[in-house]
Design a protein that fits this description.
Elements: H1 6-17, E1 21-22, H2 23-30, H3 34-50, E2 55-59, E3 63-68, H4 73-79, H5 90-102, E4 105-106, H6 107-114, H7 119-127, E5 131-136, E6 144-148, H8 150-156, H9 169-188
Helix pairs in contact: 1-3, 2-3, 5-7
């Protein structure tokens, strides 16, 4: 076999796998260093981003995935079977936010934060592949620990759970005051 075109090889790996591929695995497959993989992928990402192309490469927690550019979705939906629309209600978004910012977290901890049962919300988020079991807490009963998935990162355009937007503490205080006022109004009714 002649000289390897690493850029073409990485493109082929990402296309063929169809899901994210860890940088380590690409480096081992091509017998090159991780930093070289990153450099080659960054060059390939730049080409795909700058040219009028329908695909792009995204990074997800030390892995890469070849994906369709979002601006192509309207065209693709006309040819592909339309997927069932997953609606993220306020309850699901609130539960998902708690998991994203507090992970790993148990269902009991989510319920303490929300103040209500969350079985349905957790089950729906698992069904939508936005959260998953990431282990068990080492206490009696060994409750399940939940964390976000790669699908969560893809859907919300975040490359790592470490890079979630910072929480605005002033907004949290505003929400607390509003919630207390709402409780006071309801108790007066």
């Amino acid at each position: 076999m002649g000289k390897i075109n690493y850029e073409a090889a990485i493109e082929a790996i990402l296309f063929t796998m169809g899901e994210s591929v860890e940088i380590d695995k690409i480096a081992v497959a091509l017998d090159i260093k991780k930093k070289d993989v990153v450099k080659i992928v960054n060059g390939l990402k730049e080409k795909l981003d700058n040219e009028d192309r329908g695909i792009r490469i995204i990074e997800l927690e030390n892995a890469y995935q070849l994906c369709t550019k979002p601006e192509m979705y309207d065209i693709l939906i006309k040819i592909a079977k339309q997927p069932k629309r997953q609606i993220l209600t306020e309850v699901l978004m609130e539960t998902l936010s708690i998991v994203a910012y507090k992970q790993p977290i148990t269902k009991g901890e989510i319920e303490r934060i929300r103040g209500v049962k969350c079985d349905h919300a957790v089950n729906k988020l698992v069904e939508y592949d936005l959260i998953e079991e990431v282990g068990r807490l080492d206490v009696p009963g060994r409750p399940i620990l939940f964390g976000t998935t790669e699908e969560f990162l893809r859907r919300f355009g975040v490359d790592s759970s470490d890079n979630l937007p910072d929480i605005d503490l002033d907004k949290i205080e505003e929400f607390k005051i509003e919630a207390e006022q709402e409780v006071a109004i309801r108790s007066n009714d």
